[in-house]
Amino acid sequence: MSRLVLHEPLSAGMDRTIVIEDGVIASIGRHAPQPGDRVVDCTGKWITPALLDLHVHLREPGQEHKEDIETGCRDAIAGGVGALCCMPNTEPLAFEPATIDHIIRRATEVGRGVKVMPVAAAVKGRGSSQLSDYRALRDAGAAMISDDGFTISDEGLLRECLAQCAEVGITFAGHFELPGPDGLPNEPIAVERACRLAAATGARVHISHVSTAEGAGIILDAREDGAPITWEICPHHLLLTEDDIERLGAQGKVAPRLKTRRDTEALLQHAIDGEVDALVSDHAPHTDSEKSRPFDQAPPGMLGMGCMMSVSHKALWDKAADPDAWLRAVELWTDGPWSVLGAEGPKIEVGAEARLALFEFGETTVRPEWIHSRSSNCPYLGVPVLLKPWMTVLGRRAWRRDSLGRLAPLEGTGDRP
User: Fold this and answer.
1) What are the C-alpha distances in Å from 97 to residues 129, 170, 390?
2) What stretch(es) of the chain map to CATH 3.20.20.140?
């Protein structure tokens, strides 16, 4: 494509023009337009590195009627997400190196520049007590090991799993819930066990989608004692509570389930105070027919990546009413999640690949046009927010939303999502 010129976007400490040539940031500063330049007026738009979502269900292989790698990456682009980790609860589970290789190759072919990092299954099938070959999975490109969607309940098996993760040098990202005294899934019991085993084995453990004040407190205490723990929160556990289930019906069914206002307030405070490592969408597409079932029969999960920055910023802003809520949200979607992976994310600097997201501030509401997934089970439609994704740049490709939130490639760049 011709040179792409982003005219005077805003960011912390910078409001200068960015010139992109052959997918690389060529200059930052004043710019005299040249013939053939594709100039985009970004005045008043905030620019960040493209976001990283650590917790996404792309459903491929085996559940492509809900989502696949192509449609999931389309929704990612719509939300400013340039990289994602996809969970292994596919059909079959992603416990073979060949499956990891397939996902990476497919993403290269159809992902439009989104970096897809597969997470591998901890065991060789649902209900299996046979651990996968973590070394082979790591070498095939797995970003982490996980039991998300098929929790390892046996403590001895989990201890062995974590010991092998420590030996191989790969992070375990767990869904930590166990049956409590009332028979319902109990997060604090499982989180306490995970922190104890992490300390005992030395494994890096990432606690997925924390939903309770008690669970968060256990994690912070364990980290203070030196346990190698990181953790994440989903926007729905910041913005919604169990009181919203009657209104939302099955659209409000998630795992872990929505909790009390006390829990959301505590989690919000931890996020604002810088004690959380990452926000994640837990993007979990389901068909309309599945989500139309009675609540107890419907599958848990909601999407989507296309509005996650908007709703997470809303939750933080409603709690703090502070301009720093935006900067904290950016950190929780960029540097924070990359640090969980022990890696550096994209930078806005000369010589770096252009992997950028731009957002437009202003009162608006989440609209159906924002969703670019194959499925539509989004509980946020109609929710008032203070910003919307406006543009995404991934190397030589670039897309921009129109006034309704529909996504289209800039002329001469990208592919139509």
Assistant:
1) 18, 15, 37
2) 50-340
Contact 54, 85 (CB under 8 A): yes
**Alpha helices, DSSP H, located in 92-251:** 97-110, 134-140, 155-168, 187-201, 213-224, 236-239, 245-248
Residue from 167, 165, 113, 114 nearest 144 by CA: 165
**The one-letter amino acid at 169:** G
326 phi/psi in degrees, rounded to 5: -65, -45
Strand partners, 359: 46, 389
- Sequence ranges of the chain with CATH classification 2.30.40.10: 4-47+349-409
Based on the number of CB atoms within 10 Å of its own CB, is 160 exposed (0-12), middle (13-18) or buried (19 or more)? middle
Coil vs helix vs strand at 161: helix
CATH of 4-47+349-409, one of 3.50.50.60, 2.30.40.10, 1.10.540.10, 3.40.50.800: 2.30.40.10
Strands (E), 307-354: none
pLDDT over 50 (residue 417): no
pLDDT digits (tens, 9 = 90+) for 340-388: 999 999 999 999 999 999 999 999 999 999 999 999 999 999 999 999 9
**Among 390, 251, 242, 366, which residue's Cα sits nearest to residue 314?**
366
CB contact set of 102 (below 8 Å; sequence gap of 6+): 61
Task: Dihedral sign for Cα 253, 256, 261, 266, please.
Answer: negative
pLDDT 10s digits, 77-135: 999 999 999 999 999 999 999 999 999 999 999 999 999 999 999 999 988 999 999 99
Label each residue of 343-411 as H, E or C.
CCCCCCCCCCECEEEEEEEEEEECCHHHCCCCCCCCCCCCCEEEEEEEEEEECCEEEEECCCCCEEECC
Which residue numbers are catalytic? 282
Type and span of the H or E element at 26: strand 24-29
What's domain 50-340's architecture?
A: Alpha-Beta Barrel (3.20)
Which residues, other chains included, contact 182 with Cβ-Cβ below 8 Å and sequence gap of 6+?
Answer: none
Task: Considering only CA atoms, give the Rg of the chain.
Answer: 21
Phi, psi of 379 (to 5 degrees): -85, 0
Cis bond upstream, residue 125 (ω within 30): no
Distances (CA, A) of 100 to 16, 107, 132, 387: 40, 11, 13, 35
Q: What angle do CA 29, 35, 37 make, to 5 degrees?
A: 50
- Could you give the CA distance from residue 284 to residue 263 in angstroms, rounded to a whole number? 22
Over residues 183-203, mean pLDDT: 96
